[in-house]
Fold this protein.
Amino acid sequence: MPPRRRNRPAPHRNEAARLADQLQQAGYTKRDIARIINRDASLVSQFYTKNKGAAFVPALTQVLTAIHTAGISDITELASIAAPHTTRRTTASGTRARVRTKAVLITPTGTGTGRAGAQAIASGSARLRPLIAEAARQGLRLAFTVRLAKTGYVHVSGSRTDSPGIRRSVIQRADHTEERSYGSAATGGFSAADIARRVDAAGGDVTAAIHRWLVETGRIHADAHTTHLEIRTWHPR
């Protein structure tokens, strides 16, 4: 006789995962939840896979209360509600765990570079926001390089309608994606303060802010998906 198959129990949901479930039932995605608690979307997935998230339970509880009792739905407002209730996890000895972060490195000459790959792009390229904010504070100029499918661009490769000097600023990849750079020291680039305002208007989502600029200026199609993003800064001449 074939062995009997036992019914597997439903996967355990810790408190953070249970609260995240409620937020998703209210119409928010894991990416939205990550933005609300100011973390990467991969951490929200780890609520389910690695039993993480205990430090975010008070914040998520306050967020759900704000949604259900006050009718607040804006992600930026919910993030401001969550922030005071987000605590750092503790070590086995009871001390606060150190959080690994990357410093925003801008040299005395104003040169700074930040890159975001596919995973960071999915969570809004949050790691690039401090670089843009610091560049804006210092009054720096800014350029960026985007990578997306060739079909996502409106203009053909090398078109000067797209960007002055783009003939020197296009890299074609074997996976049918293409990198194009916008702004440079030679052309003056963009005001970091202007890009920072766009990022703020997009709720801190760097990917969305750059995508919106590219669509508004007729450079990419609205449904184009960015796979990589790079930001470069320098002092104006």
Notes: The chain is about 35% helix and 15% strand. Residues 45 and 178 are 30 Å apart (CA to CA).
